Structure formats: C-alpha cells, structure tokens
Request: fold
Amino acid sequence: MEKIKRFIECLIPITGCNLKCGYCYVIQRNKRSLQSAVMKYSPEQIGLAMNKMRWGGTCYFSICGAGETILQKDIEEIVFNILKNGHYVNITTNGTITNQLNKILDKSLSFINHLHFSFSFHYLELLDKNLLDVFFDNVKKCKEKGASIMVQVNMCDEYLPYLEDMKNLCIKNIGAMPQIAATRKEMSGLQKIELLTSHTEQEYKMFGKSFNSPLFDFTMKNFNVKRKEFCYAGDWSGNLNLATGIFRRCYASCIHQDIFKNPKEKINFLAVGNHCGSSFCMNSSHFMSLGTIPSLQAPTYAHLRNRKESGWYTKEMENFLSGKLKDNNNEYSSFKKIICNSVGLIDNLIYFIYVRIKKNRRKNAY
Ligand code: SF4
Reply:
C-alpha cells in the first residue's frame, strides 16, 4: 500500500471561467480578468521537476485555478506529466467543460486510479445556463472511467431556498448528498476572516449540518482558529505555482524557490514550525487532515470527502488518502525545531512588512 510523502497545493493562475457565481473569491477580489495563465515552463519540464526521487516518494498534487482550472491550455498534458511520475493528482473543476475533461480522461487513462476530481456544484449558475445535466453526466463519466470523485457545495445565502433541491439532485445522480465547503468573505491582508453570510455563525452551521457533511463540520471547527502547534508545512507540504514554478512553504511565507528551472536542483524543504503567519489555516481540511501538524488529532482526508456508501473513491484512493504524512516522514529533532523557529520569526516579519506595503500601495492607488 502506497503512503503519502508530501501534499502540494498547486495553483494555476487562470482567471477565465464560463460561470459567474456571486460568492466566487476571484470576483469578490475584483480579479476576474478572464485570462489564461501564462505558463513559463512546458508540461514536459514540469514533468521532469516532479521526479519522484526528488520529492522523496509518492506525493499528492492538488490543482486548482483562480478561475476554472481545466480551461487552461494543455491542462491534460500538465496532469499527465505529473501522474506519469507515479504521484496522485486532484483537479478542482466546475465540471462543465466537457471537451477539456475528455482530453484529461483520454490522456491519463492508464493512471486513472491516481486521479481525483473535486467537482464544485455551482447550482444556480448550472440552472441558469442549463448545464445541470452536463455537470452530472461529467461527474458520472469520471467515476465510470475509474477516477475518484467528490462533489462539494459552497454554502452561501443564495442557496438557502434551494437546499432540498440540491440534496435530491445529488442523491438521484451520484447516490449521496454533496459535501459542504464554508465560504469566506474575501478580506485583504491580516484581518480576521468572516463567513460570507448575513446569518449568524450558529444559523450558518445549521444550514450546513443538514447535509451530514464531515467536511463542513471539520472546516467550521477550524474556522478562524489560529494555529500555534509545530507545523511541517514547508517540508511535508507546500504551495506551488504551476505557471512560474515558485514553491512556497505556505500562504504567509516569503521564502520561495523556482523548482522548475533546474529539475536536478534540490528542493529546500524546511518546516514553518511554530510560527504560522496566517490568521487561521485556510485549507485546514487538506493540511490538517493529511497531518501537516502531527500533534493534532484530525479525521483523514478520505473520511472528510468520500461518501463511502456511494463509492465515490476507488479502494486505492481511499487507502492512499486515509494515510497521514507522519507515516512516511520523520519528525524533527529539538535542535532542528529551534532552527526552523528562528527562520520562521524572520520570515514572519518580512511577510508582515510585505503585506503592509501592499496595503498602502492599494490605498494610495484609490
Ligand atoms: S497551520 Fe499555517 S503554516 Fe501550517 S498549513 Fe496551515 S496555514 Fe500553513
């Protein structure tokens, strides 16, 4: 049974999308330029950089666009070049771009058991654009071909009158209710983050609870909780921009490396430690469930997403994503932890200054 070595959150900075959801983070930030990402490196070069030896073992690369991920040109080549190294790949998609999805499935059919799709169910846009059948046909097709799937809904006020319709549609088409993701209000810089709702947090939780979604329960439990434990992000996990090759330890880190330029160059893995610079772990359902903070008890990644009764995951995916990073990585010695924390303090300071400068520039621009 393969054990996960690292979890890498990958961004493709495409802002183009065929839908226009009111709660979209890109629209909230006013960054919807409908542009494709300019990829500095070819899919083949990305493939060379993902060599399993370099990464120390089998990793899980989770790819998400700033718009619709699979609209990106050559997405099927990028996914294939990562998979062929023996890694696992997640693609987050709105599930409506059939020709692009077909290209991915055709190209990676021989690695299909390592492919995971997170389908975002944007109900009102699908209804408005008459794409509900297209969406469910695509989800079912991925599952039939042998990929693992999960369907999730961004909980927000505009869906409240339709919650029962959404549940019933999912049960009818894919055998279970969707998982629920919490939706944030986009705010700049270091401010406390809020939920995107006019309701109280208690009411918001109640709406989500009716979906019996472990993903939602876990996300809400960790919402706005500042993490102070020793975090292995930067070593056991990381953030990678697939367009530029820039690898960062986590969101609030200034330490970076272009890991695509020279695929033979060693990647400088170093944990963030006790100095997480974020106000809370924005993607805790990924990082925490895979065990980036080993001292924290958390359900597995598979438990938060798979609807076992409907077999959304293959057996192989269920096994792989039920593992924890500490099963395949050694924790640091006390001395190494001291080094990490010293680097972390300086990194935090630089990040703080960087955010302040950015904020002031934005203010002056208005
Ligand atoms: S706790 Fe902080 S450093 Fe660790 S994964 Fe979460 S955001 Fe990143």
